[in-house]
Amino acid sequence: MANDDFMRLAREEALRGIRNGHGGPFGAVLVRNGSVVSSAHNEVLRQKDPTAHAEILAIRRAAGVLDRPHLDDCVLYTTCEPCPMCLGAIAWARIPRLYFGCTRNDAEEIGFSDRQIYALIRDEPSTILLERISLERSSCLQLFHEWRNHGDHILY
Amino acid sequence: MANDDFMRLAREEALRGIRNGHGGPFGAVLVRNGSVVSSAHNEVLRQKDPTAHAEILAIRRAAGVLDRPHLDDCVLYTTCEPCPMCLGAIAWARIPRLYFGCTRNDAEEIGFSDRQIYALIRDEPSTILLERISLERSSCLQLFHEWRNHGDHILY
User: Fold this and answer.
1) Which of A120, B19, B35, B141 is deepest in the core (most CB within 10 A)?
2) Does the complex come out with an ipTM higher than 0.95?
3) Measuring CA to CA, which residue among A81, A117, A58, A106 is closest to residue B132?
4) DSSP strand E in chain B: where?
5) With an 8 Å Cβ cutoff, is B72 touching chain A?
6) Is B13 among the residues known to form the active site?
7) Chain B interface test: which of A95, A121, A150, A154 (most B C-beta within 10 Å)
8) What is the per-residue pLDDT across B12-64, written as a single tens digit (0 to 9) for each?
9) How far apart are CA A112 and CA A117, in angstroms?
10) Residues pairing with A76 in the sheet
């Protein structure tokens, strides 16, 4: 299968989500060695879970199938540029390449907040108001020492 | 209960995760009307899920308890500044305020990638290499039209 075929599968996922009213019009497919490992569409409304974006669900499913948190041998196809939450998940999963269809600006035009969340994370003016207050840094730092001294601490 | 008490609960969550080897040294608590709605620690290794950060798990649990994707009446306490994935989730959940202990720089000092993922999302030089390739935007845009024309499409 070629890139176009995988993107078609991602679109078909999105269509399933739209027709069932599961959430936004977004689909994603994860591919490894030319085969589909997982696919998903946005299920924020169905699951009543704000993190249930297509990319997050595809990543969680692929990690489950492969039984490991790192997907560094996988490629992601997604019908829309990932939001910062999903882009973060992609980075934590060590996915090295993604193909995307629509852009964050396209998503904004139909009413989604992707571009405003990018602005928030980039410390640019954003419609999203979030108060972030530092508290008890020194006692929280002790957790890091505890973790370092714990015999089998593992980085991921 | 006061802010200090909720942060103590978040630290206790983190400690449970460290002692059980579930993942990184991070804990989070979500509070509504002065009561704890959910709490979680990082379980990336236990669940083999790269998205299983403390904040993501706390948000998913609270959304499950309250049976809605929006947590705009909740406050988050987290032992470390949220990574971009978690900050995105916080924004999608419409959480208006968060208290954090350690910083992204503290997390980097013990080996975690938070700061590099911030750099990736801010289009600054980053150690994280991720190829992002645009593909079939116009056919993906058709999904947006389909969604808009769908009777019960709902923004979230």
Assistant:
1) A120
2) yes
3) A81
4) 27-32, 35-41, 74-80, 97-102, 131-134
5) no
6) no
7) A121
8) 999 999 999 999 999 999 999 999 999 999 999 999 999 999 999 999 999 99
9) 10
10) A30, A98
